[in-house]
Every structure is written in structure tokens, then in C-alpha cells.
Amino acid sequence: MASNSLLWFRKGLRIHDNPALEHARKDSDHLYPVFIIDPHFMEPDSTAFSPGSTRAGLNRIQFLLESLVDLDSSLQKLGSRLLVFKGDPFEVLIRLLKEWDVKKLCFEYDTEPYYQARDNQLKDYASAAGIEVFSPVSHTLFNPADIIQKNGGKPPLSYQSFLKLAGKPSPPLATTVSSLPPVGNTRDYEMLRVPTIKELGYGDISQEEFSPYRGGESEALKRLKESLNDGQWVANFEKPKTDPSAFLKPATTVLSPYLKFGCLSSRYFYQCLDDVYKNAKKHTSPPVSLMGQLLWREFFYTVAFGTPNFDRMKGNRICKQIPWNDDDELLVAWREARTGYPWIDAIMVQLRKWGWIHHLARHSVACFLTRGDLFIHWERGRDVFERLLIDSDWAINNGNWLWLSCSSFFYQYNRVYSPVSFGKKYDPKGNYIRHFLPVLRDMPTEYIYAPWTAPLSVQTKANCIIGRDYPKPVVDHEFAIKECKKKMGEAYTLNRQMNSSASEESLKRSK
Ligand code: FAD
Predict the structure, then answer these.
(1) How close is the Cα of 295 to the center of ligand 1, in Å?
(2) Is the dihedral of CA 70, 71, 73, 74 positive or negative?
(3) ipTM of the predicted structure?
(4) How far is the CA of 457 from the centre of ligand 1 (A)?
(5) Any residues with Cβ below 6 Å from ligand 1, and which?
(6) Which atom of ligand 1 is nearest to the CA of 251?
(7) Cys staple from 464: which of 406, 448, 469, 481, with CB 3.0 to 4.6 Å?
(8) What is the Cα–Cα distance from 114 to 393, expressed in whole angstroms?
(9) pLDDT digits (tens, 9 = 90+) for 371-397
(10) Burial (CB count within 10 angstroms: exposed 0-12, middle 13-18, buried 19+), residue 440
(11) Going by CA atoms, what residue is nearest to atom 3 of ligand 1?
(12) At residue 103, what are phi and psi to the nearest 5 degrees?
């Protein structure tokens, strides 16, 4: 009897270092590589603040479709192809498993709560139906569950303690796939190729929302190679020292969207870095090195996996409870790049247009929205990032918003990024602002970061009247920062009191 395997792609959109693919192809007469367009992520939403689905903006959807086209093309070179379906993944899979008489089901392990729930449901079905399931950890360097177990059942809450537990990851798979078993009979299915964004019901992607980053494994490997070519740059890489305003040639690798979709294996990336370090006289180390950045990713995956309600304030035991404001007008001004602070607004335009911004740019706007100026809930900012980033990643995005809002991991709320002077350090002439906010193109350099301070005659000459062509600041930073620090101080005191009465209570109960 024929032995049929089904490989369900979700992330892990690659051929290299793909243990699920490796296992699926072994001893199989037919292999069905499947991707399911899940309405949970992809249903068009015309009420959302920017074109796209409820959870994803057009740039990320486009990036995903390009990654699928590339995957399909690679599979075709190996004698196979990608089969694309649309619908609830559980229902689609049950149908396919039955119709194709599948004996082996393979998919990459995923730590996100949404996939955990789905995957458990699917595993239960498969085991009852006598189908073998293989679900390896290959999205991350380590299995978060192993690290948590080594730490006595709790996730490590600092990067340094994480590093001590983590050790060295296992290497990527050494095998190169040269051919795949053929796809079996797939008749009777309507949609079997990668759709265009238009076919998905989104209309054309406009120039407004056009990211310069193209999706796919081929692009990921090319980008990795280009990044690592300069061994000196890799060996000297120090994260906080990179320039957030460099946009023509970003100061970091921009490999995050490829890691997010698994177009690039993190283990392969790690191994390549290790090789560069071996050939360098000296190199930087974690947390600031490039390898250190990959380990930040692991750190957040581990904490996210081991922390119930990681993506919210309420019910999240590692998150400070802070009485954030709920001011829709300010939130929208921030989201729509209308705060009146050019550094903040330029970043928000880049985010919307490109779907990627530098780490310190993320710091600037996240701090501004939360504890720096507007005192708006980090979950609201997280939602905007989740939608607009092409690298939007559940564990990393939530982890960094917790960090930046001083809700967890980092608690020095007195250290605030100035929306005026921070960017100036890197880009004194304001080229970044002039590019992303062309309305300020002719503003003289001395006013580019604070155009409301320019005399009216200067504004007139620059063709930009503040309050008419570009907004006045939505808050006075000097005033806002004092208010925010006061509120943070009060919230921290309250959290301390709540924690000490909670521990007294539990002490009493244990006696
Ligand atoms: P590089 O500096 O070249 O680093 C290489 C890789 O290391 C990155 O691709 C990424 O996978 C990982 N990495 C780097 N910095 C971090 C970090 N601080 N935490 C975890 N992993 C890291 N990154 C995402 O991938 N997805 C997100 O949704 C996301 N949301 C963020 C939200 C906020 C508020 C902040 C402050 C940061 C967020 N980051 C996120 C982390 C970081 O900004 C990006 O990973 C990084 O800027 C991506 O650019 P790069 O690939 O050039 O990074």
C-alpha cells in the first residue's frame, strides 16, 4: 500500500534545515506539501485602520505570498509543488488527511498560543486515526520547554540567566534535499496555486504601502550572505551603536521578517555567525553582538512560552499593573504619524510604508506612546506594530512592548527617549525626516526636529506652516514626561504594596 505524507507549512517556509520536510519525504511514495490560508490571519477587513486583514497589513500579506511563490518554485525544482488551500486549517486538514489517505503528518512545532491550541486538536485527531505525527522544534535555536525545565519549571526572567541555561544550540541539518517524492492525485480542489494579493480580495497593493523587502527563502539566503560577507562588520557589530536613521542602507541585517516566516533557519544563521567569529581575531559578545541578537529572540520565545497571558497586562504575573490612559485621539495621532514630533512621525511613516523600522526607532515610538509622553496602554501600540510590521512576531513583539513600557524586564522609567534630541544624535541634518515626511523637506536644519519653534517667516519660506501643513505637537514633551514619571512612580509603589500583601497572604496560608 502507498505511504502518503502531508507536510503542513505555516512558518518554516524553506527547504534548508527543515526537519519536518526531511522526515516527511523519508520512505514516502507521495508527499503533499500544503499551505492553508487561514482566515484568522488573512480575512480582509475593510474597517481596520489600514488596508489588510484584521491582524496583518498588506505589506506582510504580500511578503508572505512572495515567500510562498518562492517556496513553490523551490519545491518544483525538487519534483514537487506547493498546494494552497483556504479555510479553517483544522477542517481543511481533516478533509485532506482522509482523502489522500495520509499516514504521516509533519509540521514544525509552534509555541504561539494560537498554534498550540490548534496543534493539540490536530494531534488528538491524528492519533485517534492512526496517523503518525512529527512536529519538530525548528523555528528557534532551542526548545523553550527544555530551558524552562532546566530552570525548575519557570522561565528565566533575565537575559543573563537565560544564557547560562541555554548553552550551545544544535547545528542545522547537514543534508541537502536534492529531490522529493511526487505529489499524489489532487483532483477536485479549486485552489491549488499561490494566489495574488488581488485574488485574496485585497485589491492592488498601492505605492503607499510598498515595502522594499521581498519575501522568500532565496531572498533570505541572499541577504544573509550579503550581511555576512563583511566579516569585520559582523565581528564588530554592537547593537546599541547602530544608527536608527540609516534607511538607504539599514545599520542592521533586516533578517527579522525572514526569521519570522522561517524563510531563514535561525540555526543556520547562528552557525554562519559562529564561522565568521572563528575567522576573526576578536569579536563582540552577547548581549550586543549579532549572535547576541539571535539569543534575544530565544530569550523572548522562552519567557513568552512559559508565561500565561504574556500578551496582556491583566493576569500576567510578570507585568506591572499600570493605569494607562485610554485616549483614542492621541493613539490615532501616533498611529497616523500626526504627533507633531517629526522624529516620531517619520518613524511611523516608515513603519506603515516599509513594514520595518530599526530597533532604536521602535524604542523611540514605543517609549513615546507609553511611559514617555502619551501614557497609552502598551497593548494598543503592540496591536499597531502587530499589524504593520512585516516581521511581526507574537513572542518578540509582546516581549519588547513589555520592556519598553517598563511593564516587565526593564524598570528604569526615568530614562526616557527625547522625541527631539535622540534622533538628532544620529542624523543632525534630518535626512531621515525629510525623506519620510516630505512636507518638512525644506525646513532649515536647526528647526527640523522641532519645527513649531521656527519663526513664521521661516515656516512660510519652507512651505510648511505648523498647525496647517504639519501638526503642532500633541503634547508638550517637558510637561508630559514629568506627568508620566509621576504616574509610573505611583504605579510602581502600588505594585510593590500589592506584591508584599500577596506574599504575606501566601505565607499565612502556608503556615
Ligand atoms: P538585527 O540587529 O540584524 O538582529 C538579528 C536578529 O536578531 C533579528 O532579525 C531578530 O530576529 C533578532 N533580534 C534582534 N533584536 C531583537 C530583540 N530586541 N528581541 C528579540 N529578537 C531580536 N522583532 C521581531 O522580529 N518582531 C517583532 O514583532 C518585533 N517587535 C518589536 C517591538 C518593539 C517595541 C521593539 C522595541 C522591538 C521589536 N522587535 C521585534 C525586536 C527588534 O527591534 C527587531 O528584531 C530588529 O530590529 C529587526 O531588525 P534586524 O533583523 O535588522 O535585526
Answers:
(1) 11
(2) positive
(3) 0.99
(4) 42
(5) 239, 252-256, 259-260, 293-294, 296-297, 300, 358-359, 362-363, 366, 385, 389, 391-393, 396-397, 400-401, 404
(6) 52
(7) 469
(8) 13
(9) 999 999 999 999 999 999 999 999 999
(10) buried
(11) 253
(12) -105, -20
